[in-house]
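> forwarded from #structure-qc
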């Protein structure tokens, strides 16, 4: 602007910087398909179209039951021989992010009566039950005995993976799914990611598959068993390729790996060793 006049110093093309009505979304267009998981991005899309209400699925009511005399809640002071209920907290936050409403997050001692009572209550209020520890069906694993007393029927017992071999699954009264997860933290998380999350997605029919990609190994590894193995890893982009590096410590009890990992790499049953640059299935978290 000079002396009260607008000076245009370049040619003006017709319709330049003009957004035409309907060029992006027209009346009658489908902007979100049924069974799409709501995200900040598609909520923004809905609001741009002045859509304030939509039909959604009810969150799945879930109960979590952690068992063991050594387990204590976060209101307790640290004690020798005791551990905090980190599995219960992990499961609750994981489930809240995946379409569930956690109605009960209980801790039970290794006491058959207490576990029975907690399971009976959970069966009344929940559509899914998740247990932590006591999945091995040993003499001191009371969860299995307690479940049988409330109408539980096992569908399968143990899986050919590492970690989480003790993982088992069944139904209470032929309708309430019960996921019996091992108590070791990494094994527990592996079950949540590999088994529980896909089940929930199918249950509420959302279009959200597990994100599995191929990444190159940035590590070498010798596998000592014939089971499929899931290892916590950090997946990253470098020089035009996607790589994964596994955590420095191994074992199902290594809870520190949860602070390092952003993926799980999967080593198939028929593979005995991994060398650098091998392509591996990688479960992004």
């Amino acid at each position: 602007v000079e002396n009260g006049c607008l000076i245009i110093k370049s040619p003006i093309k017709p319709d330049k910087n003009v957004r035409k009505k309907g060029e992006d979304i027209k009346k009658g267009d489908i902007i979100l398909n049924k069974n799409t998981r709501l995200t900040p991005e598609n909520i923004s899309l809905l609001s741009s179209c002045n859509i304030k209400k939509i039909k959604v699925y009810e969150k799945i009511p879930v109960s979590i039951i952690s068992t063991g005399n050594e387990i204590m809640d976060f209101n307790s002071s640290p004690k020798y021989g005791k551990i905090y209920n980190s599995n219960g907290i992990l499961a609750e936050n994981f489930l809240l992010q995946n379409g569930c409403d956690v109605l009960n997050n209980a801790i039970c001692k290794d006491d058959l009566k207490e576990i029975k009572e907690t399971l009976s209550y959970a069966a009344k209020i929940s559509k899914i039950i998740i247990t932590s520890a006591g999945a091995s069906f040993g003499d001191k694993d009371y969860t299995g005995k307690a479940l049988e007393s409330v109408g539980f029927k096992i569908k399968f017992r143990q899986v050919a993976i590492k970690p989480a071999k003790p993982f088992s699954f069944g139904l209470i009264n032929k309708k309430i799914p019960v996921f019996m997860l091992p108590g070791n933290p990494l094994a527990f998380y592996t079950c949540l990611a590999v088994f529980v999350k896909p089940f929930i997605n199918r249950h509420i029919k959302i279009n959200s598959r597990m994100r599995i990609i191929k990444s190159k190994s940035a590590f070498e590894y010798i596998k000592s068993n014939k089971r499929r193995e899931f290892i916590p890893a950090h997946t990253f982009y470098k020089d035009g390729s996607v790589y994964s590096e596994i955590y420095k410590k191994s074992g199902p009890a290594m809870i520190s790996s949860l602070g390092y990992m952003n993926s799980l790499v999967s080593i198939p049953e028929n593979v005995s060793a991994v060398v650098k640059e091998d392509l591996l299935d990688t479960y992004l978290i």
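QC bot note: Helices lie at 40-48, 86-96, 112-125, 142-149, 185-203. The chain has five helices and 16 strands.
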